[in-house]
Fold each of these.
Amino acid sequence: MTGHPANGLDDVVHQRVRLGILTIAHEARQVEFGYLRESLELTAGNLSQHLSVLEKAGLVTIEKGYAGKRARTWITLTAAGTSALREEINQLKLLIHQVDGTGG
Amino acid sequence: MTTRPAGAGEEPQRLLADHQRLARQVRAAQRVTWFPLLVLAAVTFAAVPVYGLGGFARTCRDQPGGGRICTLYSTAALVYWPIALVLAYVAIAGFYLRRNRARGVGTRVLPYVVVGIVIAVVTGTAATWFFTHPPVRQYHLVLLDLGPGHGDLLFQLFSPTCAIGLGLVALAVVERSRALFFLALAYVAFAFVPGDDLGWVLTRPSPWGGSPRLVIGGTVLLLAGLLFAAGQRRSRRGTA
């Protein structure tokens, strides 16, 4: 393994939708499924698949409940999710810095 | 954001730009700055009759070098402010929680509410103590060296205006709002403008003497609340 920042990228997090989910969950503390679906312009099925990947990786927790009679699903970032997001952003900044530095 | 496939070849610039855009969008959805400003404006306006119609008390103490130093204060206001501010912060917390849950996002307001309540209780207690114990000797307060000649500064530091301003500084940090931060600093500075009546009342002493400060403070909060409401509505439409 070399010291290139691309080697530090986590395939679970280094993906537009999943990075978006982690970003929103980080800013919102807790985010509802419907808000994520609208913000990321995804279908419910597609979002569920990405959430499942993140949940299996231990980066988010998913909690189902009710607001009145309406079923709601809340997503919360775990400590591992916060670290993974921070690491991904650092690696992205490093990559951009390297590309800019080499004039690419 | 699209649903097209992506992998390790994602362009870093675009990913980072998306990350920043989404973070801004969530912050815009979470901000309800206008509500605390309007609640605090209402609390400030409601204080005018509390001072005007409530009773006043006077406490005098002998100074070590001779002579006496006296304070004249509104007993009703000393009770009103801590209770009104704590209730205001509870209402603000409830509103943020309900509003943000309805929008589908969590809230960051709780640190502001806790800081606001602590400041309200501390300043209320300190003001009560200083009014009933006029400063006859030197006080060392953090970086300040205060004595009998600096009584005004003590009362301004522990005034409700200063408490509201400091609370707003906390809200500005929580909401990462530069505009609110400068407004909060200006409001704290306003608490230190000398003269309770700002020189506007010709007949003294009057129980209504503090009204100009309260009316000006309340009006600033009211106008700021309306401006933030308009700005945040526009911002949400823009990021939606």
Amino acid sequence: MTSTGPLPAPARAVLRGDRHALARLISAVENQDPAAVPSLQALYKRTGHARIIGITGPLGVGKSSLINALLGRLRSEGRKVGVVAVDPSSPFSGGSVLGDRIRIERRPGDDGVFLRSMASRGHTGGVAASTRQVCRLLDAFGMDVVIVETVGSGQVDVEIREVASTSIVVLVPHLGDEVQSLKAGLFEIADVFCVNKADLPGADLAAKDLGELVGLGPGRDAWRPAVVTTSTLDGRGLDDLWNAVDAHEKFLDRSGLRAAADRRRLAQEIVGLVGDRVGRELREALDQDPELQALLDRVVRRTLDPHTAAERLYRDIRRGG
Amino acid sequence: MAAEAPRPSMPRATKPAPPVRVLIAKPGLDGHDRGAKVVARALRDAGMEVIYAGLRQTPEEIVESAIEEDVDLIGLSCLSGAHMALFPKVLRILREKKIRDVPVFAGGIIPDEDARALRKAGIKAVFGPGTSLEEIVATARRIARPHA
């Protein structure tokens, strides 16, 4: 169970810079293949270097185009960049069309970029269940920055905060009046607000409204979110965007908040892993164990309530039954 | 898998097979992408994850996308007449990169004679105008790289 043994072959290949091996390991993680776990265990120690930057916002605001712009900039500085672009899966067929690659241009043969599309596979919140693990693989692969593009988000899709250290919320002019920006959810998670498509009229007004919102309160953890105005059409504001991200990353280090947030996220991850496993085992037991089936029968007949049934089941597990 | 949304917080008793991942790309200078989009949509509705790489891709870019996305199948579309130059080049780069288990299918305006030559060169299926989506989906399912 520990990660001290010799490295599993896929992990070794990833550390060697083998792009095929990385791609296959990402698939295994996405597919929740238990065979991926030893590699994840072994690679964990090699992670923690990459900065994970989230880009979220409603659909069509230019998230992929902004990533394209940031990618060019980061590559010109020699930084290696992983991109994880999440798009929704159909709740009907389970299929999806992942179209973020079409916006992203790269130099032919550039090994300093690895771009992966992910379907959300039924997970809500704007990312896929395995997005965090995939970021970790890109981190172990040697990427300096990993940019995560969420599903075009609604107001409550805030899970990117659990994945990224800096979250950019991208908006465009004319999305609504300033009261929209007082609402809970998406507007609360921004470390950086980006008003994109600033070549269109109304961008200044949107930025001003956001600026006022940001000025209304002390902000989360004493960080006052930056507001930048960008256009990927004429290139304005793109330097400001990266500088704002960089400033937030430096703030996280300086304030000690990075370590605190890391600790909180990892605690949540461990609890989640245990919860998944216990849940899986309980469902299997409930499907197969005749005694538990009888318990379920009573709940179905309304002679026992679900809370009491759950209490009995829970006590059974605690006893190691 | 009817109208009920999947419940991620509740692991299913039996895990379904992972979805087939397909790359759909148009090599070369050809702006006609309606067919590629219709096929992408049909494969999506058949439960596949379609990575849509879009227009004006070089064969090198297509292969790089196939590697990064770890696809089980590649679909190429070309209506410009350059298929005899571009499709075999994709196959050649795939071989050079030692990708031997990812089949390639193709669609477009492709004369029968060329279609025969392309199949001989290693394109698994060639679809012309009028092919039914059912046939394309069934073929995609049949030839896609199986999951271990």
